[in-house]
Amino acid sequence: MKQTNNYLKVMKDMFTVQMMWAFGVMGVMLIIGIVRLVLQFQENGQDNFYNSFFVVATFFFFVIGIMATYFLPHYVGHGVTRKDYYKGASLALIGMAITLPFIVWGISVLTEFIVENVTSFSFKEPNMDVSTEDSNFIGDIVEFLIVTPFVEPESNWVLAIGIFSLKILTYYLAGWLISAAFYKFSVIAGLGFIAMSIVLLTVENVLLRSILSLPIPNRFAFLEMPEGIAIAALLLIPLGMFCLIRVMTKRVSVKM
After folding, report:
1. Which residues of 177-200 are buried (b: 16+ CB within 10 A; e: fewer)?
2. Within a domain: 177
3. CA 149 to chain centroid
4. Per the confidence metrics, is the pTM higher than 0.85?
5. Is the residue at 150 inside a domain?
6. Is 256 within the bounds of a domain?
7. Which of 147, 185, 208, 239 is the most buried (most CB within 10 A)?
8. Is 185:211 a contact under the CB 8 Å cutoff?
9. CB-CB contact of 68 with 171 (8 Å)
């Protein structure tokens, strides 16, 4: 393969591997959903597949984002430059962020159609609200990062898919940013990047809630801003994370 095409090979490899991981998680979730459906056959109110995976995606993409840095030694050991690794990994992430929400939505529509036509079971509406009252600061942060803004595809599929894609992008980048910092710097610096990622994800959550006119906890209300500025800032957050990752991986010493 030509040197100039190495990043395409990285993109294909990482996209394939990480999509297989995602399909594995989706398969487990489908099995769990079927078991719950059988055990609670007479009870309605289970989340549909789209809603369930939307919540799980927070943890899943953060974790595989952390793992992204550890593809670097493998590729450098096979003659791939750091730049090509970065380009390929970034394109793989963008590909996942675009395609996975559609796949999850398709599976959700299919499973709902089958279940609701074969049984009398009905799915419940998701509850993605957060408390606006000030309580425990750490608890508020954790809840706020887990319960991210959500839109039902049936109400506005373009907005719903866009929000899901943004969530995949930012949580993956947060994990990638943290692992790149630990890989390049000391533990102390890595802890600093954990704090930075929490701040960036919190700000992104507030901005998105502000744009969608969703409740915002009182302690974060000072981050609200006009819609136009909020949209621009919302797009700058993942862009800034991409740039930071590039800076850290550009000349990093690779541990073989």
Report:
1. bbbbbbbbeeeeebeebeebbbeb
2. yes
3. 12
4. yes
5. yes
6. no
7. 208
8. no
9. no
